[in-house]
Amino acid sequence: MPKIDGRSLPYNLFLHLLLPGLGHLLWREYLFGIFIFLVTLLASVLFIVSLFIHLPVGVKLVLYALPLLFYAFTFLDLVRTVKDRRQKITPGRKIIIIILLLGVAYQFLSPIAPLNFSLRNFPEIFIQKDNRLSPLYSEGDLLKASRLSYMVDVFVVNRPIVHALPQRYDIVRFSDSSGRRLNGIVVGLPGEEIEIAGGVVVANGLPDFGEAPGGIILSGECPLTLVGAYSILVATLNLGRIDGVQEVPLTDVIGEIGRLF
Q: What per-residue confidence (pLDDT) applies to 48?
């Protein structure tokens, strides 16, 4: 196994990225290291909770910015700690390895760790195979279906939790009853009566003159359809023309489509 220099500043900063406070623990600043971890733990929990509660933009900025500023400060403090203590303390090899393994295990196993959370909620990446979504997306475009737009996968529940409903005219990716991945545009929301005539969406008897994104001009028809309480109505397109309409359970929505870059 290659030698790890526990007194190296880059190594200690890497530990701090793996698990906030871990670098301070290595240098025996136990109380401050634990305090850093508890603050970042609280910030992670608040972030997840904020997905389910409507908060003003200003509140969200404060909620996210303050923990980030504190975390940035702890990196500066760790630099000071390493410079002050590495001439006085030499961490043992076993301690160095144990601390490193603890940080790696945290990232993979802890449900609030950035790596674990990202793996659970990673967007589906795919290549558009045709021009059915033109002019918004063309054949060969590299796209993503972002799960976090509508749902979050957290450790306390066995299935993703919906935190936001798709909006009318969102472009989404979903699974049909046979498991195929399809793309379409949302035309109906839960509990609505939807009819499409001449490309105009009529929701609960009232026309909706909202515009589809990216220059898509809807055309086509759809008979009066009652959308279930836990479903949305999605129209598949062919160059703007509606060639099919499907009621999609919210649990079968993969995510909102957007360009990867």
A: 75
Q: Contact, 235 vs 242, CB < 8 A?
A: yes
Tell me the CATH number at 140.
2.10.109.10
pLDDT band at 161 (very low <50, low <70, confident <90, very high): confident
> In this structure, are 146 and 44 located in the same domain?
no
DSSP β-ladder status, 222-226 and 253-259: unpaired
d(CA 217, CA 135): 9
Output the six-digit token pair for 107: 């990232």
Cα 213 from Cα 231, distance rounded (Å): 22
Q: Is the pLDDT of residue 72 over 80?
A: yes
- Strands (E) in 59-160, as ranges, are 124-127, 142-146, 151-152
Q: How open is the CA angle 148-151-152, to the nearest 5 degrees?
A: 75
Q: How far apart are CA 97 and CA 100, in angstroms?
A: 5
Lowest-confidence segment of 152-166, 178-192, 240-254 by average pLDDT = 152-166
Say whether both 62 and 19 belong to one domain: yes
| Structural domain ending residue among the three candidates 85, 120, 155 | 120
CA distances from 256 to 23, 38, 128, 158, 253 (A): 38, 33, 14, 22, 8
Question: Residue 214: how many CB atoms within 10 A of its CB?
Answer: 11
AA identity, residue 17: L
Between CA 175 and CA 259 the distance in angstroms is: 19
Query: 23: helix, coil or strand?
Result: helix
Task: Note the pTM of the prediction, 2 decimals.
Answer: 0.75
Which of 120, 139, 172 terminates a domain? The answer is 120
